[in-house]
Amino acid sequence: RPRPGLARFRGCLAGALLGDCLGAVFEGRSVVKLPELLSFLKGLEPAPPEEGGEAAGSARGESLPYTDDTAMSRSVVQSLLAKREFDEVDMAKRFAEEYKKEPNRGYGMAVVNVFKKLLSPKCNDVFEPARAQFNGKGSYGNGGAMRVAGIPLVYSDIQDVKKFAKLSAELTHANSLGYNGAILQALAVHLALQEGLSRETFLEQLISHMEHVEADDKSLSDARALGFEDLPFSRRLKKIKEFLELSSVPKADVLFELGNGIAALRSVPTAIYSFLRCMDADPDIPDHYNALQRTIIYCISLGGDTDTIATMAGAIAGAYYGEEQVPPSWEQSCEAFQETQRMAKSLYELYCQR
Ligand code: 8NA
Ligand code: MG
Ligand code: MG
Ligand code: MG
Known about the structure:
Layout: H1 6-24, H2 34-42, H3 68-83, H4 88-101, H5 111-119, H6 128-132, H7 143-146, H8 158-170, H9 176-193, H10 199-213, H11 217-225, H12 232-245, H13 251-257, H14 268-277, H15 291-301, H16 306-321, H17 328-331, H18 337-353
Helix pairs in contact: 1-15, 1-16, 1-18, 3-4, 3-18, 4-5, 8-9, 9-10, 9-16, 10-12, 12-14, 14-15, 14-16, 15-16
The protein binds alpha-Diphosphopyridine nucleotide (8NA) and magnesium ion (3 copies).
One magnesium ion is lined by residues 24, 67-69, 106, 307-308.
């Protein structure tokens, strides 16, 4: 199998950054009106050249801050680059120190307790604070999934992708409905990196992997304890397959079946659906936007946890389409975009060496 090129690594991290920074502007709104979103995006584009003025206008430049999604993604990447492999102690330390340095990035309500425990010198098992969350049930939030893209950008073997996506998520999310969402998101990025995979093959492969991932005892018992059917991620992937066979799917059906919330189960499948759906044109989104832009616009238009759904879909779409579809004016509007490009290059070099 040919090795994916640098453009896909850059596309992945840039897509993730765009999704977070643009999505955060609308985070938590139950309804996002498309005209308002499109008008906001227009404001990111360079001003039209003025007569007698500069030849081309410039983008606004780094005005949109990133949130917890990117802060944690960066810690994952920085740990992998520093240690040249997954190291749970180093990664946990980076999560906690990053939180201590900038606590106001919009972290989930409960995960901050994990960081506080990790910062204590008494902590000698980095997975223990996550296991204690929610009276021992562990978090099922989407925080393990939102930050996981670095794992498939370092490990090319699919078993490694699953193993380290799970371990990286378990530092904060001990419930299988949390870490299985991270495995699913990591597998989606892994598959998106491959050359020319069709929509059908992409989804079939995700379903067959997740049916295996969700069949273990803990996944079955966690799903039952929360009142879900068995194999809940796999079931939603099959719903996505049904949606993609229809000529149009109303937003209300997407929200009902897949969701736009902060639980991994109500957001990771939504991100995957958004990516796959937006391979085709959308009658509501102007055609001058490319497929990567359409994916991010569609995610944000769903409302709810917009930054996190858009960052996950952006990582997948960016890995699939590559940096050619990342509009410079959008990218340059995001905090730390140049550092993101450098991290993508370093990840690519590590991926090639391994
Ligand atoms: P988390 O582990 O704190 O989980 C997020 C939330 O999910 C918790 O605060 C709970 O409300 C709920 N939850 C998770 N597990 C359980 C459980 N076992 N029982 C009952 N409730 C549970 O943090 P996280 O890192 O998973 O959160 C990620 C999200 O928080 C991202 O969207 C991120 O951007 C951030 N965030 C979201 C919003 C929003 O309104 N959508 C706002 C601010 C921050
Ligand atoms: Mg966020
Ligand atoms: Mg988290
Ligand atoms: Mg969010």
